[in-house]
Amino acid sequence: MVEETIFSKIIRREISADVVYQDELVTAFRDISPKAPTHVLIVLNVLVPTVNDLLPIHEESMGHLFTVALKIARSEGIAEDGYRLIINCNRHGGQEVNHIHMHLLGGRPLGPMLAY
Ligand code: AMP
């Protein structure tokens, strides 16, 4: 049984979020607890809990995450300086919300890839 998270409600616009982009495959909104000047989450519209649950049918929408990330990076004005794209998986990856999402982070030098 796959349980919905708050992200499904944001996608359906049932609760408020700062949505910056939405199409038939993905929804992007600003992280409620930003770790950088730009911190946007790009979420699959269908509920797939983690990368471990991906199937070949998700390849189009997973690829779409990257082109939408680029579109948003350009619109945020951070594309040329650069940015970081992160997808966390499960406990060791630090995943808190079990609904696949890509973090788009930028707007300042982000430092080393891992804190420790
Ligand atoms: P992760 O640790 O990869 O699962 O990331 C989950 C992210 O979702 C965290 O950075 C949270 O700050 C963010 N988050 C949780 N609830 C909300 C919300 N209601 N609106 C926007 N971002 C959220």
Could you characterize the architecture of this molecule?
This protein is α+β, with helices and mostly antiparallel strands and 116 residues long. The protein has a single domain (6-106), classed as 2-Layer Sandwich (HIT family, subunit A), CATH 3.30.428. Helices cover 24% and strands 22% of the residues. The chain has helices at residues 6-11, 59-76, 90-93; strands spanning 19-22, 26-30, 38-44, 83-86, 101-106. A five-stranded antiparallel β-sheet has the order 1-2-3-5-4. β2 and β3 form a beta hairpin. The longest helix is centred in the middle third of the chain and has 18 residues, at 59-76. The N and C termini lie far apart (35 Å). Adenosine monophosphate binds at residues 6, 17, 29, 31-33, 41, 88, 94-97. Adenosine monophosphate (AMP) is lined by residues 6, 17, 29, 31-33, 41, 88, 94-97.
List the defining traits of the structure above:
116 residues; alpha+beta; HIT family, subunit A; five-stranded antiparallel beta sheet; 5 strands; 22% strand; binds adenosine monophosphate
Count every helix, treating DSSP H or I runs of 4 or more residues as helices.
Answer: 3
According to CATH, what is the class?
Alpha Beta
| Ligands, deduplicated | adenosine monophosphate
Lateral arrangement of strands in the main beta sheet = 1-2-3-5-4
Outline:
globular
Q: Tell me the helix content.
A: 10-25%
Q: Report how far apart the termini are.
A: 35 Å
Computed structural class:
alpha+beta
* CATH topology type: HIT family, subunit A
Rg from Cα: 14 Å
CATH architecture: 2-Layer Sandwich
Give a quick account of the main beta sheet: strands, pairing sense, barrel closure: 5 strands, antiparallel
Global mean pLDDT: 97
Give, in order, the helices and strands: HEEEHEHE
CATH superfamily: HIT-like
Residue stretches low in confidence (pLDDT < 50, at least 5 long) are none
Number of strands: 5
Domains (count): 1
Give the percentage of residues in beta strands.
Answer: 15-25%
